[in-house]
């Protein structure tokens, strides 16, 4: 069983020699075996722009299409995740069957622990699913934080890895995740998710002809270790898929663990597991930081508890946000406009001070853009006459207001 990236990407390696070194020599995280086996003690928080004439002609059709897409979109995060699974049945007839079944049995022996960890995923799951979907990756990838950190954004391993995706310091530097006494990008869920998915895709395309399973092995053990095992397997006449390789024990278990938890989430009732209800819509909005603000002040202005705001912004180690350090604060959905108004800024202002335009970046979705600028996704689609909100293109400019 293999999965290959749906599209190949070109990467600018001239300025990425440090990243290549990190790819070959280290894994982005290293999780101790106790944390990787569901620690019970860890319990915490739950298409292109149209011209004016085209906009006029297609306005009604665009809205009808958009609302139809909303009706089809699962409002339950678990349903949405299951719909994006691509490896769910393949392993059953594959060489890895016994290895996956072993971890299914391990996980189902403590269904309450699974429930605790999935509850901890509540603020992050839908957003991560959106990012995985936008890249055309198998939905199972959204569950990597389950295996890595038990969905704890502040998890740290004794090897120095940190965050939801358990990224090592050297890899963080190569991926542009800054660290200081006041800020740790590895703990910021939005930035670390983007970096981890970039890393997985880049390794797949650079080393493994798009094979995501091999890239996941390299995510755990480092590309150098996987490449050596790959050469040995091929010298023995094997194809060189993940299941052919002789790797460190933790890496041998990594993909089976991921497939095991995906199998349980696909059919929780069959395994005696009750998953928490998680909405399919965004749990937070991204509010631009226009001036220095402490978490306590921001919490008071937004009308939420400081603890809740700290849980959504674990990268802020000193509990102070500076415009030069962080672009935005994550705020519970429904409280963003209040904080925007209190800070005297506008959700239509980006970090560079330009107004009412968002330039689409790779991985952006309509909902993620709407969340970042604290506007409704339906309004964003209407203002831009989007016939296909799921077909945004990098470089596309979206207006962020109806004026």
UniProtKB/TrEMBL annotation:
This is Transglycosylase SLT domain-containing protein. GO terms for molecular function: lytic endotransglycosylase activity. InterPro entries: LysM, LysM_dom_sf, Lysozyme-like_dom_sf, Transglyc_AS, Transglycosylase_SLT_dom_1. PANTHER family: LYSM DOMAIN-CONTAINING GPI-ANCHORED PROTEIN 2, MEMBRANE-BOUND LYTIC MUREIN TRANSGLYCOSYLASE D. One of its GO terms (cellular component) is membrane. Belongs to the transglycosylase Slt family. One of its GO terms (biological process) is peptidoglycan metabolic process. Coiled coil: none annotated. It comes from Halomonas eurihalina. Residues 1-35 form the signal peptide. The lineage of its organism: Bacteria, Pseudomonadati, Pseudomonadota, Gammaproteobacteria, Oceanospirillales. Keywords: Signal. Residues 356-400 form the LysM domain. It holds the Pfam family LysM. SUPFAM superfamilies: LysM domain, Lysozyme-like. SMART domains: LysM (SM00257).
């Amino acid at each position: 069983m293999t999965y290959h990236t749906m599209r190949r990407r070109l990467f600018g390696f001239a300025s990425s020699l440090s990243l290549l070194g990190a790819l070959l020599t280290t894994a982005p995280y290293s999780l101790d075996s106790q944390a990787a086996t569901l620690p019970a003690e860890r319990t915490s928080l739950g298409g292109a722009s149209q011209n004016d004439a085209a906009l006029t002609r297609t306005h009604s059709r665009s809205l009808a299409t958009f609302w139809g897409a909303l009706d089809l979109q699962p409002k339950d995060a678990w349903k949405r995740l299951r719909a994006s699974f691509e490896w769910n049945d393949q392993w059953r007839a594959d060489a890895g069957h016994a290895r996956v079944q072993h971890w299914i049995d391990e996980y189902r022996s403590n269904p309450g622990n699974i429930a605790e960890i999935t509850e901890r995923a509540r603020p992050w799951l839908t957003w991560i699913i959106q990012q995985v979907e936008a890249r055309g990756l198998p939905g199972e990838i959204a569950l990597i934080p389950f295996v890595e950190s038990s969905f704890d954004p502040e998890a740290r391993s004794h090897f120095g890895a940190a965050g939801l995706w358990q990224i090592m310091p050297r890899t963080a530097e190569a991926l542009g995740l800054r660290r200081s006494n006041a800020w740790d990008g590895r703990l910021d869920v939005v930035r670390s998710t983007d970096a981890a998915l970039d890393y997985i895709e880049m390794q797949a395309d650079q080393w493994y002809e798009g094979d995501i399973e091999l890239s996941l092995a390299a995510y755990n053990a480092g590309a150098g270790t996987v490449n050596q095992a790959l050469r040995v397997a091929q010298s023995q006449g094997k194809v060189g898929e993940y299941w052919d390789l002789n790797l460190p024990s933790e890496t041998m278990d990594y993909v089976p663990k991921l497939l095991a938890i995906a199998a349980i989430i696909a059919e929780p009732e069959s395994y005696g597991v009750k998953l928490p209800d998680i909405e399919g819509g965004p749990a937070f909005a991204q509010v631009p930081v226009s001036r220095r603000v402490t978490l306590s002040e921001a919490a008071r202005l937004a009308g939420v508890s400081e603890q809740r705001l700290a849980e959504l912004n674990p990268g802020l180690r000193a509990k102070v946000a500076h415009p030069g350090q962080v672009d935005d604060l994550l705020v519970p959905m429904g409280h963003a406009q209040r904080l925007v108004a209190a800070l005297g800024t506008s959700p239509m202002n980006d970090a560079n001070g330009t107004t009412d335009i968002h330039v689409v970046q790779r991985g952006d979705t309509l909902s993620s853009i709407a969340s970042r600028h604290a506007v409704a996704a339906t309004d964003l689609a209407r203002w831009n006459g989007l016939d296909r909100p799921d077909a945004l293109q990098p470089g596309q400019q979206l207006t962020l207001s109806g004026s």
